[in-house]
Amino acid sequence: MTTTSSSTTEATTGSIVDRPRFDCRNAYVETLADLAQADHRIVGVVNDSVGSSKLDAFKKAFPDRLINVGIAEQDMVGVAAGLANGGRIPFVSAASCFLTARALEQIKTDVSYSNRNVKLCGMSPGVAYGELGPTHQSIEDIAWLRAIDNMIIVVPADPVETAAAMRWAAATEGPAFIRVSRMSVPQIYPDDYEFVPGRSITVREGDDVTIISNGTILWRALAAAEQLEAEGVSARVISMPTVKPLDTEAVLKAARETAGIVTAEEATKAGGLGGAVAETVVAEHPTRVTILGFDAFQPTGSAGYLIDRAGMSPEGIADAARRLVR
Asked: N or C: which end of the chain has fewer CB within 10 A?
């Protein structure tokens, strides 16, 4: 699936770095409660992660619609598939590192191959659990799931997009994976934003170079573009919330119209958004592409430290873009 065009949203006045920050898990649980109130089919399934998913209020409001299987991720996904078979719409909430690694076979077979109406919500993805080391960091999840047929992959950038993606998922039949960040991020989209799978959003216009990003890195890409503008470099910033299906038209338009593309994501360099963009341009319109992300197991450290270390501070992203227009 590709789209015929990407949408454009005007940037709010003032620097992105000065805006208030929000935990997307709050938008997740509020939206899940709203969906459950309106539709009795909505249920939650967790792996002893009620607290880390901020689902305590949901549990209190809908005690018979939150199923806690304990620390048993494979069972959790299997139970969700069974609930979907029975006409329910399960939202599976678990730390992304355990959801995607431990239950990958069940995701592949019980959900994707069987084409079940299961919504997988990877909580605290990327390096959100940076201080707990590589066992808890989830930088491989996008690459793993992108290789599985039938799975739509969504990486929201702010609380508005998180809520919009959940509303779309609840109303759409079939498997989906939504990354739900715990790291505080500024609001980027207006309150009436509508998520459309496979559609990118040009959040900043530019003609010299393109930065394609999503998730927790998008605001950093916008901050990089602000720095570049001060130097006379016009950077287009494209938000790509859907890694699969990719908005290939927007990617190829950027390849044709600008000097090159920088991708930046809180995930591995191999097989994620950067890989999808590179695969698209190499086949259709070759151009220079710089992929920013993680290229190895990460050390123990805060999320901010690890992201900056990987070259995805605003300054790091701006520097990658500068090299493409020199």
From this structure: C
